[in-house]
């Protein structure tokens, strides 16, 4: 699981460092939850035969690498948002390097979304809810606002793919009990500690009611 921080300024600083690194050596930086997490998402979309022109929103896109992989898999209607301008700058440079002109990128705070952030067929979150949950300034209210924002961003019957290292399946089912139903738990790597086997990452697919 990535090391998460609750501070907006530390996120910006981290993405500024990654932006400088990309400009220096062309390395886009860390892939959150590893490459297998992206493969898991893309395989599920393909298994469900989700149309390639479905509108997809990547919430907290960071370096935008997930969107690049989706574009390489044939998806054509892709949007990434992040509240960090440095993250969006970085993802724009990664997009340019890969020649993926069909990816839209915006500086946007998901907790105070603009009116145009609506009507998506698919929303994807790899770690953004985790980061919001660590905010020391009223995290419970922020999680409730996250669910409200998700309800306005996602079409009825749209899919929400969530990857988390902070929350168990049961906790997430409770968090999204209003407005969403669980469709599937996706397999994630197991770990063994003290003779007990568990999952360090939870990956769930919800459908908006």
Q: How are the secondary structure elements laid out?
A:
Layout: H1 8-25, H2 35-47, E1 55-59, H3 65-72, E2 77-82, H4 85-98, E3 103-107, E4 120-126, H5 128-133, H6 139-153, E5 154-164, H7 169-175, E6 180-186, E7 190-193, E8 196-199, E9 202-208
Parallel strand pairs: 1-2, 1-4, 2-3, 4-5
Antiparallel strand pairs: 5-9, 6-9, 7-8
GO molecular function: protein-lysine N-methyltransferase activity
Pfam families: Methyltransf_31
Protein name: EFMT2 methyltransferase
Descriptive keywords:
209 residues; alpha/beta; 7-stranded mixed β-sheet; two-stranded antiparallel ribbon; 9 strands; disordered N terminus; transferase; SAM-dependent_MTases_sf; EFMT2 methyltransferase; cytoplasm; protein-lysine N-methyltransferase activity
Q: Quick summary of this structure?
A:
With 209 residues, the chain is α/β, with parallel strands linked by helices. It contains seven helices and nine strands. Helix 1 (8-25) packs parallel to helix 4.
Structural account:
Helix content is 39%, strand content 27%. The chain is an alpha/beta fold and 209 residues long. The chain has a single domain, classed as Vaccinia Virus protein VP39 (Rossmann fold), CATH 3.40.50.150. Strands 3-2-1-4-5-9-6 form a 7-stranded mixed beta sheet. α1 (8-25) packs parallel to α4. InterPro entries: Efm4/METTL10, Methyltranfer_dom, SAM-dependent_MTases_sf. This is EFMT2 methyltransferase.
